[in-house]
């Protein structure tokens, strides 16, 4: 019999963290649920994965898959949708913990409202831990399309906790668009879950909730100092620019004439994207300093980049308005951080 719900744990080189979550969660779920651990071809911390594999042979609620090669973070998110055998699922980082008592209510909501593609529940840190990714969301129902895209997309970078209606994602073609879109738009593979949320929001209703659906646990980071963080490709100036273009292209995709056909929504989403990445570049300023980069020159480069990024066919009828708004958002959003002025 297929499970009612799947807790998906994409993992790589953090076997003990994944094992700890499995052992924590098992006593909280019944036989109708499954825990799916997706090992992205790990080469370190293997003992935890071995124990999970053994546990999967003893407990039908545990499913362990080790990929033959590392398909990247995005590949493991695709695998969550592919290998979960239930009508809905939750994706949880291996260092965090699901909150099944609240998730049960979310499942009931998805059964009651079959047009809801996802529920973004809130996140709280475990007792005694300093919050990093914790967030409490407002209770709201956003209909698919303009409202869900305009109010929900880009609101969260963190993967843990979102509950997806897999049944609807498959019937609406979102799952197939997701896999194909990542191949066509590789610049956002590091934030594949955010691209998935854009696709879901474009055609399905979305719920955000103040209820705590997961807890963030102890951080397992290989970036233990500024030097290591500065060397991480995802946070470089060039990677941030690529991410920006990737998300711009994602918005063009869902607002295209054969989709929502909504130019004004595209402009709105683009401006939100500019504001978000202005903030990210400011936050990353200390990393650029660690690399010895000229931050004043980077700021000017960034300004010209945002302007040039509006030079696409979809924006031409409203280009002057977009440029004015981009300029205003840029100046308002980018604080003075480590040499930005």
- Average pLDDT: 90
Class by alpha and beta content:
alpha/beta
Biggest pleated-sheet summary = 9 strands, mixed
CATH domain fold name of the largest domain: Spore Coat Polysaccharide Biosynthesis Protein SpsA, Chain A
The rounded Rg comes to 21 Å
Q: How many separate domains?
A: 2
Q: Specify the CATH architecture of the largest domain.
A: Alpha-Beta Complex
Helix content: 40-55%
**What is the H/E string?**
EHEHEHEEHEEHEHHHEHHHHHH
Shape, please? Answer: globular
Q: Which regions have little confidence, pLDDT < 50, spanning 5+ residues?
A: 337-341
Describe this structure in words.
With 341 residues, this protein is an alpha/beta fold. The chain folds into 2 domains: 5-216, Spore Coat Polysaccharide Biosynthesis Protein SpsA, Chain A; 226-333. It contains 14 helices and 9 strands. Strand 1 (5-11), helix 1 (15-25) and strand 2 form a beta-alpha-beta unit. The protein is globular, with a radius of gyration of 21 Å. The protein starts with a strand and ends in an 8-residue tail after the last helix.
In short:
With 341 residues, the chain is α/β, with parallel strands linked by helices. It has 14 helices and nine strands.
